[in-house]
Amino acid sequence: MPEPLKNFYSRDLVATMGDHLKRVYPAFDVAGFIHAATTGLDALELKERAGHICDALNRFLPSDLENAIEVMLASLHPDDSVELSSVGMDADGIRGWAVMPMSDLVGLRCAEAFDTALMAQKEMTKRFSSEFGIRHLILQDQDRAMAEITRWADDDNYHVRRLASEGTRPRLPWAMQLPAFIADPGPSLPILEKLKNDPTEYVRRSVANHLNDIAKDNGDTTARVCAKWMENATPHRKKLIHHALRTLIKQGHPLALETLGFGAAEIELSPLHIQTPVVQFGEALEFESVIRSTSDRKQQLAIDFIVHWRKANGETAPKVFKLKTLTLAPGERISVSKRHPIRPITTRRYYPGLQAVELQVNGKACGRHDFELVMEN
Question: What is the pTM of this model?
């Protein structure tokens, strides 16, 4: 089992940070920093650990933000093309996960030296990612920050180009949301337009995730952008578009389906057969059906399944899961089946009683059937 990410923030990492900061700033109190940064660290989760180390940095670096930034930048690893997997334990300078607390500190205090803070985020992101810290600057002064961040989409360094997309995502996981961009994603669209053909998969993946973020609140915007981008799209851009439209495809958004070649499905569906009409919590829901094409041409099918989970008030709420995509020849018949485990997860609370499952083909739900979830032996 892989080690939890939070363990990257360890006493060894803090001590390494202290050594590098001492190297470039002889007045730095390494022992005091280590004590402050590691006291209570083990009880915290990943983001809280980064914040705890950030607080310690704020105590022991120069009180003037511009001076503090000068020290932090001098302590960075000289290689500005580090892979994200690096954890920051490096003899040549700070990089990897150790950069996050530094970026957070710059973001939290950005009002004291805004332009210098922008420059620092750009340099720090080359050694890890400033996607969390940069959001403080956007919230502090959106117009000023976005003018510079938009220019970063043309930067030679792929980490900087990715930050232009990732740092402006409306709903970046683990990060502060950007309410203005949730309401109106327009300011970030020129950045995505610049990056849609980026030569680096790492950057294109961020663009796709950014568009998927937008889709959660402004689905038509994402659908229109992707439909436009599909014209004369390269294979790389088609892959980006497929990933960007994943939420809209699950929702059955007409333009998103059309963009990916999924028209109205011409099919017959056999009754959905529930092989496990009673599911013990911790076991799996199993079901199958047969789909037959009634079309005289081949057709692309996006087949999903929807589980209608029971809520505390007895009502149900749908959750869409991907099943498969395929091409069905005229008159062809296929069997589709799924074994879906129902077990503890951190993002859902289950309630016993009747639930339901149904298939969704090219955005149209069909074949709903109930099953019972039992929570106790």
Answer: 0.87
